[in-house]
Amino acid sequence: MTLPPNFGRAIDLSGPGKAPAAVSAQSAVASVTAANIASEFLTLSRTKPVVVACWSPRSQESMTVVDVLAKLQAMDEERWVLGSLNVDQEQQVAQALQVRTVPYAIALVNEQIVPLFEQSYPEAQIRMVIDKVLSLAFEQGIGGEGEVPEAPMEPEEEEALNALEAGDFATAEAAYKKLLARKPQDNFAKLGLAQTQLLIRTAGLDADAISAEADADPKNVELQMKSADLEISRGDVDLAFARLLKYIREFRGPDQTLAKDHLIQLFSLVDPADPRLVKARSALASALY
Predict the structure, then answer these.
(1) Which of 9-23, 49-63, 110-124, 180-194 has the highest mean pLDDT?
(2) What is the CATH number of the domain that holds 256?
(3) Is residue 51 within 8 Å of residue 116, measured between CB atoms?
(4) Given this model, what pLDDT does residue 177 score?
(5) Strands 30-31 and 81-86, sheet pairing
(6) Taking the CB of the first residue and of the last residue of the chain, which one, N or C, has fewer CB atoms within 10 A?
(7) pTM, whole model, 2 decimals?
């Protein structure tokens, strides 16, 4: 399932800005805070899809997006939950969600984060995004009250999924690349490509043999990367991250760069809010600087 591309402009959160005079109705939407994001919004996402709209009083566009989302939520008779995150007031939450610009929106589905968009959308495009969130939630058994709209699938995505079902990873990879060439900010296509490339790299490998070789030859960056691929493919996220972080700390030069780039590629396969990922990102920064 693929979301529409990003449109419009965004405000960079790294610098100061002047708040616009216009006032948004975002104050009527439930606020997301450090105190309630886990206890309320993540919990709600087990039974209904949740959309979190990140905004700043410095960006009129971001406040307008919250208003549009509130309108769509009312039209959908609360089949999904909307929360608003003031990034200026809740900087810790914004950092955890990796908010770099506003407007920015994510969905929470069964406690999993799905990035939606990070620029301003027309209402019709936001409607498409919400329809896809509802369909994704329905597929996972979340929500389902009323008729869930059928989300249109991009032709390249359909080609990729058919190829994956047939075990043709090369064709799937090419299809995702075509889609990203047309829609560079498509988050589902990015994830699909990363997952497909992991399947390509691990196809036919003997996990036990690779792991033993990597442990016996810790200086061999290719073996460390192969072993990390196999570890993350079976869910051993901590082990995969720790393996490459150890290599990055102990070695310098081109091979260190290879290990770093590979680790960042593996980061894209993990939920951005996963504490293991947050910890690994911090450890990578410490190892490099």
Answers:
(1) 49-63
(2) 1.25.40
(3) yes
(4) 96
(5) parallel
(6) C
(7) 0.52
Give the end of a domain, one of 184, 202, 220. 202
* % of the chain surpassing 90 pLDDT: 51
Are 211 and 164 in the same domain?
no
Q: Clarify whether residues 278 and 182 are in a common domain.
A: no
Q: How long is the chain?
A: 289
167/273 same-domain check:
no
Q: Which two tokens stand for residue 76?
A: 């959908």
The pLDDT assigned to 144 comes to 61
Contact 135, 161 (CB under 8 A): no
Whether 269 and 191 share a structural domain: no
pLDDT of 147 over the 80 cut: no
Place of tokens 């019709």: 124
* pLDDT surpasses 60 at 178: yes
For residues 135 and 16, membership in a common domain is answered with yes
Locate tokens 């504490």: which residue? Answer: 275
Do 114 and 159 reside in the same domain of the chain?
no
- Centre a 10 Å sphere on the Cβ of residue 182 and count the other Cβ atoms it contains: 13
For residues 81 and 144, give the distance between their C-alpha atoms in angstroms, rounded to a whole number.
13
pLDDT of residue 152: 64
Domain ranges, residue 161: 155-202
Give the CATH number for residue 106: 3.40.30.10
Helices marked H in the chain: 43-44, 60-75, 91-96, 123-139, 155-165, 169-182, 187-202, 207-216, 221-233, 237-250, 254-267, 275-288
Give the Cα separation of 263 and 244 in Å (integer). Answer: 6
Confidence check: pLDDT of 8 > 60 = no
Is residue 47 included in any domain, yes or no?
A: yes
The pLDDT tens digits for 88-130 are: 999 999 998 889 889 999 999 988 888 888 877 667 778 878 9
More confident residue, 262 or 166: 262
